[in-house]
User: What shape does this take?
Amino acid sequence: MPISKNKKKEIVQDVANAVKVSKSVVFVNFHGLTVADTTLVRKQLKGNGISYLVAKKTLAKKALADSGTTGTMPELEGEFGLVYGDDLIAPAREVYDFQKKMDNKIAIVGGIFEGAYMDKDAMVTIASIPPLKTLYAQFVNLINSPLQGFAMAVDQIAKKKEAVQ
Assistant: This one.
């Protein structure tokens, strides 16, 4: 059944709004995803403050062309969807997690990060960045490590001096 002109305009507007209000957008191919899997994906994404939008590629390309995004748009393959949110890394990380869980039934094909188009490899690299809390913990551990080593050395010296006396 063909889509009416008004519905097409609405879809183009939805895609344009998603790109405009989001810090990052991930383009996904969801070939072979069942309705149950799609429902699970949408539910988990929504729980993390991330949205999922399916659109025809031609309509999405029209909206993306008018978005003012820099760089070259990646090739949009297969069934096309957008995953977007306020967090820079969370949309890519969540899709990447689903990609591993669902035997590549949903896959990253590119995206928009900080106002520029990114290819598949760049978005997968972004997806592998740990969450902010994990980065904070790693940073604190990095700062603490030399101090902890120094404290252990001083403790060993003190124990040797006690043993000598």
